[in-house]
Design a protein that fits this description.
It is built from seven helices and four strands. By secondary structure, it is an alpha+beta fold.
């Protein structure tokens, strides 16, 4: 993902464990771990606010944009992924006998 979460660095700098942060912020350890490992797809402003307050930091200290990684890892849309998995289709669909779709090849 193009946005990197630097939670691990901040915790190390402040000599704090993820468990201690989870207790202060009121989040589960599992959800903070997902955020720390970079597997989270989104973060609520209220969560960001609570983390920044507990760590005495700014959102920019916690998040970093990595443009090179953004170009390499463009998320593909579901339709594109499905199209890649299907064999190439040729011809045009038409209604055949009994309303069943048939392909003209």
């Amino acid at each position: 993902m193009a946005i990197a979460v630097k939670l691990d660095d901040l915790l190390h700098d402040r000599r704090m464990t993820l468990t201690e942060l989870a207790d202060q912020v009121g989040m589960t350890l599992a959800n903070l771990s997902i955020l720390k490992t970079g597997k989270a797809r989104a973060i609520r402003f209220s969560t960001l606010d609570a983390i920044c307050e507990a760590l005495s930091c700014q959102p920019g200290d916690l998040l970093r944009f990595e443009p090179e990684q953004a170009r390499r890892e463009r998320p593909r849309r579901a339709k594109e992924a499905q199209a890649d998995e299907r064999p190439a289709e040729r011809g045009r669909l038409r209604r055949g006998k009994h309303g069943i779709q048939q392909r003209d090849l």
